[in-house]
Specification:
The chain is built from five helices and seven strands; from the N terminus they run E-H-E-H-E-H-E-E-E-H-E-H. It is α/β, with parallel strands linked by helices. Helix 1 packs across helix 5.
C-alpha cells in the first residue's frame, strides 16, 4: 500500500516529526511505501474562492499554479493520506491549512445529485501532537479531520492525538506504542 504523509509542522525537529517518524518506520517495516511531504518546504497559496475548479469535472481544476498541484498529484497516487500536524489554536497550523483549503478543487457538485470527489474511497488518517489535554483542546481538530474526510468522500480510518507534549523529548514509550498501532490501523 502507498501512504503519503502530509506534515504540517513548522518545526523540523518537533514532536510531530518524532511521532510521525515512528508511524512511518512501522509502515515501512510492514512492507508499505511511504512518501512524506513537508508543506513548509513548499509554496502553497491560500484558496482564492474563485470557484474555477468547479467547472472541471475530471481533474484538479485549481486556477493557481504553485506547489499544491504537485502535492495533489502525489496524494492522488497514494492509497492512504496521513495528515500529521501540531495543534495550533485548536486547528491545523496555517502552513497546512492552505493546502487543506485548496482541496476544494477535489470536489464538484457538493450537495446535489452530481456530487463527486476525486479522492473518493481513499483512506485518510490523522496524527496530532499538542501541549495540553485532548478534551477541550484537540477534540475540535479531530472533528475537522472527520468532516474534511467526509466532504472529500474519503474513508477516515484512524486518528491519534498525542497530548501533553510541548518539547521533542516528551513523547515517550506510550506515544511510540500508539504511533505503531496507528500505522497498523491505517493499513488494516
Amino acid at each position: 500500500m502507498k501512504v503519503i504523509s502530509i506534515l504540517g509542522s513548522p518545526r523540523e525537529k518537533g514532536n510531530t516529526v518524532k511521532v510521525l517518524d515512528w508511524v512511518e518506520d512501522e509502515l515501512r517495516s510492514l512492507g508499505h511505501q511511504v512518501d512524506r511531504v513537508n508543506v513548509v518546504d513548499h509554496t502553497i497559496a491560500g484558496c482564492l474562492g474563485c470557484r474555477q475548479c468547479q467547472d472541471v469535472l475530471d481533474d484538479l481544476g485549481c486556477a493557481q499554479d504553485d506547489d499544491a498541484q504537485a502535492i495533489f498529484q502525489r496524494m492522488m497516487a497514494a492509497d492512504v493520506i496521513l495528515w500529521a500536524s501540531p495543534l495550533f489554536w485548536w486547528d491545523f497550523p496555517s502552513q497546512l491549512k492552505a493546502l487543506i483549503d485548496r482541496q476544494y478543487c477535489f470536489v464538484t457538485g457538493y450537495g446535489g445529485p452530481s456530487y463527486r470527489s476525486l479522492a473518493e474511497g481513499k483512506k485518510s488518517a490523522m496524527l496530532v501532537t499538542c501541549d495540553g489535554p485532548i478534551e477541550g483542546n484537540a477534540n475540535l481538530i479531530v472533528e475537522l479531520f472527520r468532516r474534511m474526510s467526509a466532504y472529500l468522500k474519503m474513508v477516515a480510518v484512524a486518528d491519534l492525538v498525542v497530548p501533553f507534549c510541548a518539547m521533542p523529548d516528551e513523547p515517550g514509550d506510550e506515544a511510540k506504542t500508539k504511533a505503531e498501532a496507528l500505522a497498523r490501523q491505517i493499513v488494516a
